[in-house]
Amino acid sequence: MNIGFEAKRFFTNSTGLGNYSRFIVDALSVNNENDNFFLYTPSNVPGKASKEILNRRNVKVVRPSSTYQMFKAGSLWRTWGISQHPTIDSLNVFHGLSHELPIGLPVHIKKIVTVHDLIFLRYPQFYRQIDIWIYKSKLLHACRNADKIIAVSKQTASDLIEFLHVDEKKIEVVYQGCHSNFKRKLSAQEIEQVKIKHQLPAEYILNVGTVEERKNVLVLVKALAQIPEKSRLPLIIMGKHTPYYQTVVEEAAKLGVIKNIRFLNNIPFADFPAIYQGAKVFVYPSLFEGFGIPLVEAIESCVPVITSEGSCFIEAAGPSAKYINPKRSDELKKTLMEVLSDDTLRDQMIKGSTEYIQKFRPEVISSNLIKAYKTA
Q1: How far is CA 53 from each of CA 20, 37, 74, rounded to the nearest angstrom?
Q2: What is the spatial order of strands in the sheet that 93-96 belongs to?
Q3: 75 by DSSP, 3-state: which?
Q4: What is the rounded CA–CA span in Å between residue 79 and residue 280?
Q5: DSSP string for residues in 275-317
Q6: Quick check: do 2-177+361-375 and 180-358 share a fold?
Q7: Which of 95, 26, 83, 96 is nearest to 54 (CA)?
Q8: In the record, which residues are listed under signal peptide (predicted)?
Q9: Which residues is 283 bridged to in the sheet?
């Protein structure tokens, strides 16, 4: 098969949707050597994470014509120009990796779109009205025109039916996995070097994700304040800052735990595995996610996970993680102390979770996607 991807984020996003795009192209190109994969992108400056993928014989980059480049009309090309490119007629499948499909794709091409979440509809208070309108318009167009919709979780599939009234027969749930970097067990020396580099303590609680209201890290700060000071481990919060960051800092200062918290921003992706593997426990008290890939990254790093009830969290972390009400700091505090004080429990959580996430292996996801392409 010849398979095309709308691949802007493959090149431009270093986390989130970019990681998903690279994971999918990587998994498919490794496990399906006789198929060809075309990456349609207005910008093809490769990051370190993508160079190995782009060197494969069955992966090809397709860019706009010089006219689009001259007028810096990359967005127009992604929306309409891709469908006019000479390579399009050779495709069997076109896969929009993040909520979008170009206008005017030929009838003979099977059209697939991945939908990650509908948070902008479930929690509109976190978005500008103009952004909600744009996101919804693009997603409605993609869902109407797609032969198959890939939802990254059952939660997202359910939201597509609830909010957009999508025919459930069009939806296929195909989970995502994390970057292969997280699968390598680092030596104690390698972990220690990264700890020294970023001035991290010997033991710590870890949270990873954008510091924004929906991620709900404030409940973790409040839980930390309830732990007796002699039993309190430092908290490392790693992720991009938003205005909510200031709210978290002010509350931490008010509760007297600001000295126990380190905020890490703009950390090289290459250092992520060591920071995960150096943690005593990973806490992810988000209110809602489409999938929650940091949970899989933590489990791959052999770290026990505490996360929220509801949403997709049980799908990502499995039955061996611990689940709490994300609005109850006292419940989180109790669970944190239980996990941190019991080595046997932590080992059981790690073992069970590691077995659970085998379903997110690249070869499994690649096989599921190929089946979806063929049955579209």
Answers
A1: 13, 11, 23
A2: 59-62, 36-40, 2-6, 93-96, 110-115, 148-151, 171-173
A3: helix
A4: 45
A5: HHHT-SEEEE--S--SS-HHHHHHHHTT--EEEESSTTHHHHH
A6: yes
A7: 26
A8: none
A9: 306
Q: What is the pLDDT of residue 65?
A: 85
Q: How confident is the model at residue 73 (pLDDT cuts 50, 70, 90)?
A: confident
Enumerate the H helices of 104-153 as residue ranges. 119-122, 129-145
Q: Where are the domains of the chain?
A: 2-177+361-375, 180-358
What was the pLDDT predicted at 111?
A: 98
Q: Which residues contact residue 277 at a Cβ distance below 8 angstroms, ignoring those fewer than 6 apart?
A: 185, 186, 191, 301, 302, 303
In the Cβ-directed half-sphere of 248, how many Cα atoms lie within 13 Å?
27
Q: Tell me the C-alpha to C-alpha distance, in Å, between residue 245 and each of 119, 208, 256, 265.
A: 20, 13, 17, 11
Handedness of CA 94, 99, 105, 107 (dihedral sign): positive
pTM of the model: 0.92
Tokens of 320: 């061996």
Measure the CA–CA gap between 255 and 219, rounded to whole angstroms. Answer: 12
Radius of gyration for the alpha carbons in the chain, expressed in angstroms and rounded: 21
DSSP for 334-345 reads HHHHHHHT-HHH
- Give the Cα separation of 60 and 26 in Å (integer): 13
Instruction: Domain 2-177+361-375: give its CATH code.
Output: 3.40.50.2000
Given a cut of 80, whether residue 71 has pLDDT beyond it is no
Question: d(Cα 227, Cα 207) in Å, to the nearest integer?
Answer: 17
Alpha helices in the chain (DSSP H): 8-12, 16-31, 48-54, 66-70, 74-79, 119-122, 129-145, 154-164, 188-197, 217-226, 244-255, 272-277, 293-300, 313-317, 329-340, 343-356, 362-375
Token readout for 299 is 């489990």
CATH 3.40.50.2000 fits 180-358, yes or no: yes
Instruction: Look at residues 213, 240, 207 and name the one whose alpha carbon lies nearest to residue 123.
Output: 213
Strands 305-308 and 171-173, bridge-based pairing: unpaired
